[in-house]
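User: Good morning. I'm curious how magnesium ion would be positioned relative to this chain. Could you predict the structure with it bound?
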Amino acid sequence: MRSRLDKSETIFALCSGPLPSAVAIVRVSGPRALTIGREIFRSPSFRGEFERGMYFGSFVGEGETPIDEGLLLVFPDHRSFTGEASLEFQCHGSPAVVSALEKRLIELAARPAQPGEFSYRAYLNEKLSATEIENLRDLFRAQDSIDVANIYRRRDGATTELVQRLRSALTGLLAVLDTAIDFSEEYAEVTQQARGPLDLAIRECSLAIQRYSRLNGSSNSPRVALVGRPNAGKSSLFNAILCRYRAIVHDKPGTTRDVLEEDFMLQGRRWRLVDTAGRHDKATGTEREGIELGDSYLEGAAFWVLVVDGTVGLTEIETDLLQRYRSKPFVIVWNKSDLPGWTYPADLGALPAAPVRLSALHADGMEAFWSAMDALAGVSSPSAHGPLPTHREYAALLEVNSRLLSLRERLDGDELPEYLSEEARLVVNLLEGLVGEVDTEHVLDRVFSEFCIGK
Ligand SMILES: Nc1nc2c(ncn2[C@@H]2O[C@H](COP(=O)(O)OP(=O)(O)OP(=O)(O)O)[C@@H](O)[C@H]2O)c(=O)[nH]1
Ligand SMILES: [Mg+2]
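Assistant: Good morning! Here's the predicted structure, ligand included:
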């Protein structure tokens, strides 16, 4: 498709969001931009020649029919995003206004832009490098501030550092394997030593892969499950966290039957909050099914919140939950602190962690609750910050990772160190390729397949 794009044509696109909106921005770029500006823009003070800057006035169609009033941003020369003469019409975000303006632009021989075409021109005019385009593409996919920080850290060579670390782990592995070739009788001991650097490389590699998958929506946000007995106040806490009435709250135990999920932010990251059905021993039928469903979510959660009714205290249900899921990080909430019958546990030693005092109903104690959540989020997602590969690097890392995993299997399978060492050298070569030149054609194909119109 790119071969059919002609830089001598002038292109336009609505580059602000869906209409109606407060303001709409229509971008124009190409050799006819300034002529088009003169045809459409009217202002008593405008002398007919544009300089770089912002103008206020009216926009008109054929025969001076009014289109709208607004601002016109003019970039008369190469000092623009695309590196060509460009305009930005800022008008009211009315579908009728924007469609009249677009009609006029077509009459004046501009054509609608293809997705990513402005960025493509920026690349052709050497305003953006292929790497900067990759970063731009990922910036639009960023889900939270950590992704944004990781994208900007690429400029500081975060991936190059990752590759260096992987390479040095593999050099360590090669040294061990080469020793094994020379002293074959000590093979078992040597393979034991080789496992350390290999595991380290696999871990670094998979974390980088996970970061990329997450940015690209192929992995879900980590989950936090609210768990406890019926009526403990899980749904009330669910609503307090989301700051809206999302889950039904009722004084009848067994109100929540299904699993409810909503996204929320914690430490700049998107998480998924899960409300589950209250657990008790005598559940049957759909209630039993609801509890089992909740169990499967709890199994998959990054951490969980045990909601205890502080007017009742710990029962066998909570003790059993704490026993079963103690290896997963959790926070205990001692709910309903506003009620007269509420008592904070006297013997904290009997509990695995000090509970947070809370009234979910009045959202009282939420500050302490959020700090407990922050602490858990910190330990539950240590992988969030770190080198974020580009698409090209990701593809190479997938290959590196799968070879490393098979190398580990072969190491356990007592294969001859000569073969293993050959494979390890191959992985080192793959890593070399990772820090090499960017495949520009590949990057540009992505601009056209994934960028939005107007970018
Ligand atoms: N006074 C007081 N009442 C609360 C508090 N939290 C929840 N409740 C009440 O306790 C009852 C049960 O609350 P829910 O949030 O529905 O409890 P749940 O744990 O989701 O219950 P199930 O869905 O049955 O498992 C409701 O009447 C709530 O208003 C609280 O902090 N203080
Ligand atoms: Mg509920």
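The mean pLDDT is 89. The pocket of magnesium ion (ligand 2) is lined by residues 234-235, 247, 255-256 (CB under 6 Å).
Let me know if you'd like a different ligand tried.
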